[in-house]
From TrEMBL:
Protein name: Heme ABC exporter ATP-binding protein CcmA
GO molecular function terms attached to this record: ATP binding; ATP hydrolysis activity; transmembrane transporter activity
Gene3D superfamilies listed in its UniProt record: P-loop containing nucleotide triphosphate hydrolases (3.40.50.300)
A biological-process GO annotation: cytochrome complex assembly
Organismal lineage: Bacteria, Pseudomonadati, Pseudomonadota, Alphaproteobacteria, Sneathiellales
InterPro entries hit by this protein: AAA+_ATPase, ABC_transporter-like_ATP-bd, ABC_transptr_haem_export_CcmA, P-loop_NTPase
Keywords in alphabetical order: ATP-binding, Cytochrome c-type biogenesis, Membrane, Nucleotide-binding, Translocase, Transport
Pfam family, one: ABC_tran
Highest taxon listed in the record's lineage: Bacteria
Ranges of residues in domain ABC transporter: 3-201
Amino acid sequence: MRFSVQNLACQRADQLIFEGLSFALGPGEAIWVQGRNGAGKSSLLRICAGLLRPHAGGVAWADEDIFTESDRYQGAFHYVGHQDALKPALTVSENIKFWAAYHGHSDIETALAEFELAPLRDTPAGILSQGQKKRTNLARLAASSAPLWILDEPVSALDKHFIALFKEKLLRHLAGGGMAIFATHQDLGIDQVRRLNLDEVAV
Ligand SMILES: Nc1ncnc2c1ncn2[C@@H]1O[C@H](COP(=O)(O)OP(=O)(O)OP(=O)(O)O)[C@@H](O)[C@H]1O
């Protein structure tokens, strides 16, 4: 499996943000997207996740355009956005169950255990702390078998212990042939990631 973007340009509200961006990702590979505030990191991740159309260029999964073959691509990626996607009235376990079902899974116990969420399983998401919300969102990864993780600021609000835990999960995902594209302002200290600095393609 291969994910690629070709000659990508992004425009937001009539403003060209970046152009001429190309890269490819294969099994076991990860890209760390960097850049100043407003460089277009979140926009790029949303384009990669098929949530935002590029101004120009293409995005392909297994050499098929994701915008024309969106059904086949849906199960292949897991996007965790900057804004949390939790439903505040649902409990932690109900939220994870919802996303597990979206990816065709019913077991959420591993996901709860992996992010140490069992004590919070019956807590409504609306009253979680920022770090607990982030852990619940990341637990959605453990409840899916998507090969491509697309993560916007995955460690913001996490304390040292959970940053280390996330890093371990990410490395395990890559070691198992998974792929990841993530944007963080913080260096996670992962040697094998490739860096993509959007300041270099910003307009
Ligand atoms: N929904 C939107 N409508 C119009 N413009 C937008 C929208 N979302 C983002 N932008 C603009 O697009 C540009 C890129 O924003 P984006 O959020 O992708 O940057 P970023 O690199 O992720 O920034 P940060 O480091 O601050 O999170 C910014 O100038 C922003 O104002």
